[in-house]
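Quick look at the format.
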Amino acid sequence: MSLTFDTVIIRHGAEIGVKSSITRARYDRLLIRNITAKLSAEGLSIDHIDRRFGRIYIKTSMPEKVAKSLSRVFGISSTSPAISCKADLNVIAEIAIKLAEKKGGQGVKFAIQCRRVGQHPFTSMDVCRYVGAKVLDVMKDKDWRVNLEEPDYTISIEIRDQDAFIYTEVIKGVGGLPQGSQGGVICLVSGGIDSPVASWLAMRRGCTITLLHFNLQPFSGEETLKKVIDIAKTLAQWSPAFKVKLLMAPFGEVLKEIIEKCPRKLTCVLCKRMMLRISEEIALKRGLMGIVTGDSIGEQASQTLKNMAVISEAAKKLPIYRPLAGFDKPETEKIAREIGTYEISARPDEGCKAAPSRPSIAARLEEVLEAEKALNIKCLIENSVNRVVELDV
């Protein structure tokens, strides 16, 4: 018998398993759609997809590549390349022995694990004892020992009715919910580290995303726009089944009005309020269900609790979601590195030249509303919304 890995075991995110049977079936269908799109985008071929309760099994001639690829699909907690066979103890033991011989080495501490679903003339413990004894007998000359607490090498067995799958590797997935299960949101992206991570976290919770960048020129430069485009392309790789749209909204004229007509200490608060108004209009036109920002409590002057409360008041019709509200910067940077946006966001740019030297950190709604009387808010919103450009990423 040859050791031919021919299957990938797909394990659901933990939350999917506690859903109702109807919801779980819907999530499974979405997950399979996203799996198919991911593999197609990467040119990886499969032979068959078998959906069972709590698992998806994929037959493929390239299980290692497929398992690694699918570990980056939302809704998958882990994957494993596996060898499939009949649920026969002798056959299972023979495969386990060959895996042990291939591993080789002296004094290896090993363990046999088994998970079993269905009716069988043996228990999971029976499988572990039987297969473990067979492996131990063959490998005794190499001083292999059983160690269930801290094994150097684990052979895992999953038995489903009349089928068995043997594997030695578990690749951690990103978890979350299948993308497309929660509807669409509009995500504000600035080119910094935080907003791409917030957008990714929204996708991880099952949302489809439309990215919106406010072009601050002449208060920012071309490098910022290049960064945003590259960020959008990177995030799009996480969403093969749903197109990620990048919208560019002109905002330089709005910012110029705010600087010229309103108190300078309120520039950032007024700027963010106008962004939310414009975002809300665009989202409503596109049937989106909320606004996602990269705000983290206290990180910037506009992100104090008092200022965020005043800023949020500007959005009247849609909720604002702040996935990073309780994150420390190192936590956000860690995720940014893992998802591929950190190096892009860390590239130098000109920053925003409109920021005041002493911004308000505790703006009062009354003074903000009074300051906004100097602005033709409706005209500014319409002018920006009507000139939004959609870029293909």
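Next, a different chain entirely:
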Amino acid sequence: AKAIFDAGRENDPVAKAVLDRYFSIMGWFLSILCCTLNPDVIVLGGGVSKAGQMLIDGVLEPMRKHTFSPCRNVRLAIATLGNDAGIYGAFKLALQNFT
């Protein structure tokens, strides 16, 4: 994913086509979450979140295109814990249940 985002930043036409398709699919998926759960914010994490603002900018328009109007104001954010978020969450859950 990093190589594709890096090439997209350099305006590589193949990478741009791959990213456009990814943003379209991810935006559609996030619109389903918005319409089903109506969250205030969706936090994007994992390795792809290292793309930062490029990820948010790419996904936002397709997401809003497929989202019902009452749910369109959902904010997107990048997870600050990155790939370690799952580890921290599992540890917190273990502390709550076993202490």
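Residues 13-37 form the longest helix (25 residues).

See the schema section for token definitions.
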